[in-house]
Every structure is written in structure tokens, then in C-alpha cells.
Specification:
The protein has about 240 residues and is an alpha/beta fold. It is built from twelve helices and six strands. Strand 4, helix 10 and strand 5 form a beta-alpha-beta unit. Bound molecules: calcium ion. Calcium ion (CA) binds next to loops.
Length: about 240
């Protein structure tokens, strides 16, 4: 449970880290999987099935730790672990195609409870929303404007294809700031995964970690989250307090 005191303490620490006197958020940089869609269990199952097929004995849970990386970077990491080399571009293309196919097979997208409320509050308080995801999964990227109408203006998105370095590198969030036309200290990052939180932290933005999956709150704190919240509905509930602080 996050109390108002926790929000004030988190903001005090953030302001002191950046050496700024005030904090006035103008934009929200929002991750997709595990924040807007309850899609991570399906991603993990799809990764596990694909890696089983090529003789890698991965555990489903480990894919929650790789979350946020691009597909190509994840495949490279697995190849280095299991084969002692990077994957070739052809291998990356074929294996990511297969994983994407399995992901689609595992059913319709599920909206994350509380996400619509969060987006409505950001809009109501005049914060520009930018989608910042390591995904290249067109089934979700194409659906987002219908699933969350009016939340994201056209072009307000950074995905795997738009960056040279994926999360945990800060580049995706720095690109998001460019799109919003704001400096780091005018942004709220909303993330659920350790590598995504790290990217948000390294970009200099106030970074909120939401524990929507199996990764514990402490891991998100250690990754650099300024504030950790237990669920998206709870985050939506405390958001006006955070924005007005
Ligand atoms: Ca995520």
C-alpha cells in the first residue's frame, strides 16, 4: 500500500537526486506489455515454446526478467548463454517470427485493469501520453488506438523499430521525451519490468514501477524505481495526488 507520505518522500528523493526545487509533470511515458495489456504471461509462454523447440531449457519465469528488451536483443542473449555466440540476422528473423506466431495463437489481447483510468487521468490533467515499448508486436501496436481511444495522439510512440538501443538503455525514453518536447524532469515513466524501470531511471525521469507480474517490488526498487505501486488500479487512484504534488 502506498501512502501519501510515500509519494512525498519519493518526490523529495527524486528532486534531490536531480538537484531541482520543483517538479511539474507535463508528459507520461508509458510502457505497453504488463502496463496497458496483461500480455506478459502469453509472451513468456510463447518464448518458452520457441526456445524449447531449439533445445534451450529456459524457464517461463526468466522471460519476465528479460521483459522490455527488444526481441532481437533477447534472442542474442539466449544464443550467448546457450551457444556461446550471437544469433545471425536470419536466425533472429526466423525465431522472432515463430515466437510472434505463438503469441498470437495464445488468444485475444487482454486490457490491463486500471489502465484506461490511468490514461484518462493523465489526459484530464493535461499530460501528453507517449507509448514507449520494446515490442515490435504489430497485433498489439496496431490495436492500441482502438483499445485506448484518444489516449495517444498519432506518432506519439516509440517501439523496437525506432531505437538503436533497447531498454535497459535510456534511448527509448529519451526518444519519448523528444516526441513530447519535454525534459526528463517533466515526465512520469510508467513501467512494470526491471529492465524497463532501469531505462526510465537512466533517462532521468521520475519512474514508477507497477508490480503487475511475478517480479517482486524490491527488484523494481533496486532497478531504480522512484515509487513502487502494487497494481494499476491502485496507481490510477493515487495518480492525482502524485501529479499535484
Ligand atoms: Ca513491460
Amino acid at each position: 500500500m502506498v501512502a501519501n507520505d510515500d509519494i512525498q518522500e519519493a518526490l523529495n528523493q527524486y528532486r534531490s537526486r536531480l538537484d531541482i526545487a520543483t517538479w511539474c509533470p507535463k508528459c507520461a511515458l508509458i510502457d505497453m506489455d504488463g502496463v496497458l495489456y496483461d500480455s506478459m504471461p502469453r509472451h513468456a509462454r510463447a518464448w518458452k515454446r520457441m526456445t524449447d523447440e531449439i533445445g534451450m531449457s529456459c524457464r517461463e519465469e526468466e522471460f519476465f526478467l528479460y521483459e522490455g528488451m527488444t526481441g532481437a536483443a533477447t534472442i542474442d542473449l539466449l544464443f550467448e548463454q546457450y551457444k556461446g555466440r550471437k544469433a545471425t540476422p536470419d536466425e533472429i528473423e526466423e525465431l522472432y517470427r515463430r515466437k510472434t506466431l505463438y503469441f498470437k495463437e495464445y488468444g485475444e489481447r487482454i486490457l490491463m485493469p486500471g489502465a484506461d483510468k490511468m490514461l484518462n487521468i493523465f489526459t484530464k490533467y493535461g499530460l501528453k501520453c507517449v507509448l514507449v515499448t520494446g515490442s515490435a508486436q504489430s497485433s498489439l501496436l496496431d490495436a492500441i488506438y482502438n483499445d485506448y481511444p484518444g489516449a495517444f495522439e498519432p506518432g506519439m510512440r516509440v517501439c523496437a523499430r525506432d531505437v538503436r538501443h533497447g531498454k535497459p538503455h535510456p534511448e527509448p525514453y529519451l526518444r519519448g521525451l523528444d516526441l513530447a518536447g519535454q525534459p526528463p524532469h517533466a515526465a512520469i515513466v510508467v513501467e512494470n519490468a526491471p529492465l524497463g524501470v532501469e531505462a526510465g531511471h537512466r533517462s532521468g525521469c521520475f519512474t514508477v514501477g507497477i508490480t503487475t507480474g511475478p517480479v517482486p517490488a524490491d527488484v523494481l526498487r533496486q532497478s531504480g524505481a522512484d515509487l513502487v505501486v502494487d497494481s494499476m488500479p491502485m496507481f490510477a487512484q493515487l495518480l492525482p495526488e502524485l501529479i499535484n504534488s
